[in-house]
Description:
Layout: H1 5-20, H2 24-43, H3 48-74, E1 98-99, H4 112-127, H5 129-134, E2 141-146, H6 153-164, E3 167-171, H7 173-178, H8 184-197, E4 201-205, H9 208-211, H10 221-237, E5 245-251, E6 269-272, H11 278-289, H12 300-306, H13 312-331, H14 341-350, H15 357-369
Parallel strand pairs: 2-5, 2-6, 3-4, 4-5
Antiparallel strand pairs: 1-3
Helix pairs in contact: 1-2, 2-3, 4-6, 8-10, 11-12, 11-13, 13-14
This protein binds adenosine-5'-diphosphate (ADP) and magnesium ion (MG).
Magnesium ion is lined by residues 153-154, 206, 250.
Amino acid sequence: MTTSFSTFERLKDKGITAFKSGEFTSAKTYLIEAAECMIELAEQAKTPQLRKQQEQYAAELIDLAKNCDQYKKSGKPSRQRVSNEDDSGKNASDWIIKEKPTLGFDDIAGLEDVKNEIRIKMIHPLRHPELAAKYGIHPGGGVLLYGPPGTGKTMMAKAIAHELDAVFFVISPADILSKWVGEAEQNLQKLFDAARAEPMAIIFMDELEALVPNREAGGANVMQRVVPQILQELEGFDEKEGQPLLFMGATNKPWMLDEAIRRPGRLDTMIYVPLPDAPARFKMLEIYLGKRPLSDDVDLGVLCDKLNGYSGADIAHLAEQAARFAFLESIAGKQQRPISMKDLLQVIETTPPSVKPTDLKRYDEFAATN
Ligand SMILES: Nc1ncnc2c1ncn2[C@@H]1O[C@H](COP(=O)(O)OP(=O)(O)O)[C@@H](O)[C@H]1O
Ligand SMILES: [Mg+2]
């Protein structure tokens, strides 16, 4: 057998590069080849310990290959890193995603109750630390945002970082599976250390049900090792005196979460982020149509009523589709024309809300009992 470590490295790098640029079909092929290579290497391993490690590594690559099918379907965009240094992955701190978000509370339509709860729990204590201490109010802790997809949970987490001028770190299962394979524990440790080193930081765990799934929901190999570490790191957070470190999680499937994540000191405040109400939908229409050419017949009030049951992401998408419609007709040689009421109604009629009534019921039930 002549499989060498460098062959493995080459295949793995190709697989991961393809994964990151969204070429999931070729990523899958390379990753499986890399995993096969690693299995061969494991068979020749000098110590049982090394053999076990290498088998584990091969299993993680296979997990990642399996995820390719899933991402191919959902068309998940690969994430951009802040640091643009060499992409070899040798320096783990390069893998950390941190950003200073620029969107604030005003960019989020509606969700006034959510904003208020967050002001009370997170923003005021950190903006007025002396006063908070005087009243015995401890900043920090964790907030879990849950609700249907496309309601602004990720937006909200970023906006909080902006309001607090905090550095925003993201942990997502896609990152762990694609970039951290084989090194998830070390990189997680580095990420938490980097966050602790900032004057103020938020660690945001997106798609939390995939990061911290309960037993029923299952989860990939690598996740099963990462979860206890995340829980342990969260535990250590509050103990750091005067360290304004916040953590937030978001999930579309709260019922799939491991209960342990919700214990005191972890993500102990749960906030429901519902579908937009009428004023929020109106504001969204203003945000997403306001900067586009509109014909006089466009009646936002009528659209707002018709959009009951649609999410923020749905509304942003509908506006874009109607705009594309008018744009294409304008370049097709016909006259340049604004977006009409007819364009908008047509898009609404042919696009049902992404959240089904049965799903909504499940959120409401969960919110009522949690
Ligand atoms: N409350 C909102 N106000 C304005 N835009 C929204 C809102 N909710 C969703 N959107 C739109 O939908 C997109 C997806 O929102 P996101 O925060 O990723 O949803 P979630 O994390 O809840 O799935 C946003 O980028 C934005 O265009
Ligand atoms: Mg999100």
